[in-house]
Design goal:
This protein is of the alpha+beta class and about 170 residues long. It has two domains: about 10-90, no CATH class; about 105-165, SH3 type barrels (Roll), CATH 2.30.30.140. Helix content is about 25%, strand content about 15%. Strands 4-3-2-1-5 form a five-stranded antiparallel sheet, with no helix packed on it. Strand 2 (about 130-135) and strand 3 (about 140-145) form a beta hairpin. The longest helix has 30 residues, at about 60-90.
């Protein structure tokens, strides 16, 4: 196999696409190509049906095929719900149930972009800006805040906020 160089990576897109579409998803339990086409793909190099499961068997009756796909889609829905619950469990392990109050001082996470022309490196920039004072709770997870010194108003998600703990 040739070495992928700076200018040749795009030549491998069809192979990568085939690999992704024929791989069984951990969430659904089926490959994307099976869910779209109702059968497994015939892979290059699979000369015999025994190497590509499902290719040699043809459902003769259209109603049987429809019934089989409905069962598969029901199983996929159940698998997605189960995977979503598992993923939510691990996501919520470190989630903090914090909601700022109006008037509270917070830091807001910055999302800077590097600019070579201005010799600015985002990696070295401060992660949070502020302090900001919470002015409005737009929704349970969105707030509007005003910078204490510049009076600039920003809207931010609570996940991008950090409590400004000032020592008096």
């Amino acid at each position: 196999m040739p070495i992928i160089g700076m200018g040749t990576w795009d030549h491998f897109i069809p192979e990568v696409k085939l690999a992704i579409n024929s791989a069984v998803s951990e969430t659904t339990g089926y490959s994307p190509i099976y869910l779209v086409q109702g059968r497994e793909a015939r892979l290059p190099g699979a000369t015999f049906d025994k190497y590509t499961p499902g290719c040699g068997t043809v459902t003769k009756n259209q109603d049987q095929k429809q019934s089989q796909l409905q069962q598969v889609f029901s199983a996929v829905r159940a698998n997605i719900v189960e995977a979503s619950g598992t993923q939510a469990k691990y996501y919520n392990l470190r989630r903090r149930p914090w909601r700022p109050d109006i008037g509270q001082l917070v830091w807001i996470k910055e999302h800077p972009v590097s600019k070579a022309t201005q010799e600015f490196t985002a990696k070295l920039a401060p992660r949070y800006g502020g302090p900001y004072r919470i002015t409005t709770l737009v929704s349970p997870v969105i707030v509007k805040a005003t910078h204490v010194t510049t009076h600039q108003t920003r809207t931010a998600h609570v996940k991008d906020l950090k409590y400004a703990n000032f020592m008096n």
